[in-house]
Protein 1
Amino acid sequence: MINLLFPMVSKINSKALSDEELVAEYLKTQNVAYFDKLYSRYSGKIFAKCISLLKYESLAEDAMQEIFMKILLNLSKFSGKSKFSTWIYSITYNFCIDIIRRKKKDPSMLIDNFGDNNDVVDDVEDAFLLETNIARLKVILEEIPTSDKAILLMKYQDEMSIRDIGMVLDKSESAIKMKIKRAKQKFKSIYQETYND
């Protein structure tokens, strides 16, 4: 993917620098090469997240560029309380969910069902999701509501902690645990309806 917004200004020896160090150096020097390194580290991952949520390549490409613009404009607000990757994935998920809400393609996104309801028992083992055939996994993820898909991707693909997911979605840890349980149950239910193994 070509970096259209942030062309390399000057070469830097940034391979050994962590994300947080690159942010600090960019903020200190305003050398775009530091931000370009962050772009090259994360553009593919952010594009993959955008396309998995938005479904259309052109929409995902536009979203990715806008997300990086938001990251650049808000870089000074990165506090370091979470990992840089968690912070940018938060921006990514929220941006994509906002697009979906605006387009009203998924009415389930309009309902905030993150309540602290304890009526759901987590009887779906993580192994059920993790051991699902890739082709079947893609089919099921296309069938479940986007909010459930997003939270499952954060937990199992991005390996984010409950605390980090809570920060991304601005919800309590207990609400996130409940949302994950419900999403897993929805996943299993749709799996069983689709594949009678």
Protein 2
Amino acid sequence: MVRQTGRADQTTTVGEVTSAVDRHPHLAAPCPDGWVRVDLHSHTMWSGDSTTTPEEIERAVVDSCIDVLCITDHNAIAGAVELADRLTCRVVVGEEMRTSAGELIGLFLTERVPMGAPPAETARLIRDQGGVVYVPHPFDPMRRHLAADALVELVNDGLVDAMEVLNAKTSLASLNRRAEAFATHHGLHAGAGSDAHVPDAIGAAYVEMPDFDGPGEFLEHLPLGRVVGHHWDQARPWTPRIVPSTSRG
């Protein structure tokens, strides 16, 4: 079930609203003991369409209380690898790669997956390195979502592990609901991510789930989790800043 949150939960009591306002705008109630908040979809300056620097990521994960950040830069894993030893939260190395029929995400990667291959080949390349195949923003026409026929073919071939049923950048809630219905109908695990391209977006959508060690436990525990979040696609406040150059990889 998707649990929508806002800057203050309007269904709570007056005292609870006050405490909600005091918390970071993307946080709902605290996690149960032994659970973690996992943002399954985020971007850094290695993506090309994001300018979020390592220093900004460091501050954002502390402010948002995200426990596990899946860094899924476009066609690159170098940023995730570099940040894995730098952030206070755990990092899952991922990549959002463009296939010949739209975008797929691989999680728990050890090698970059080349762009441009057919979806089935891309999914197998993810699986071959022990990774998790995750479908982002499946029905959002504003994004390079996976074509409907390609998605159905992947699912029928058993090549999808999880689907993003809450993407914080997707402006129409009906599109997220459609993704949730599709995932439920096809027995796919439900995931959620901020799709953050600016630091303040990190943690706008995430999964609360029992803690895990590696991709196997991640897939075992994900169905036990709760999808939490809300739409958030605000522009970065202007500040003077320098974004370091980086080679994507």
Protein 3
Amino acid sequence: MLTITAIACTIGSVLFLMYALLPTFYNKYWNKNAVRILPQKKQILLSFDDGPDPRYTGKLLDLLQKHNATATFFVVAAKAMQYPQLVERMIAEGHTVALHSCEHKNPWYKNYRATQEDFAFSLALMKNSGWSIRYYRPPWGRSNLFTQSIAKQHGLQMVFWNVEARDWSEKATVSSIANQLLHKTKDGGIVCLHDSGEENGAAKDAPLKTIAALAEILPIWKQEHYEFVKPESVV
């Protein structure tokens, strides 16, 4: 006979499945309104999460400018307010600025009100700075039951990825990041990398390895005639 504790655990597990896990998998793999792969061959959407960060984002922008490569930056709104000059530079140099939540908190543990406030507050801050935001990537790619509907209310389209190189890991090296980018990125690749993130568990100075790996890979992608695109050109 089931105990009260066992029944409570079962109910809790079912609720968590319905509120967090199923919406995450739906949005990431089946939601037709989310961008997960590019429609054209020889295109790459290069994206960076968790910034801006004064230690790394400027160096990354220098590298992208050197190779005439455009990217999409999914910025944390609170950081964007701290370092608006980096966001302004992204825009001035032709990159897309998108939202990655207000403070990079886990959506699984936010209720409807907290989810709505996260979007509303983030977008109000960015609108007041004159930045038009059309795209959203949830932290860690995680959604809750309300993420998609609230994003849609605010006119945002979710963008996920199909290529990652675990560039945030302590085990990552410049070589491992470069090799993964080279071998995983195919036609229509949406590449997810990071220009910050230590507060979210990333290794110390991890973006420096990412930048060094990209310095090796960007010329190869260009030699292979890949076009660097932004979400607005493919959706």
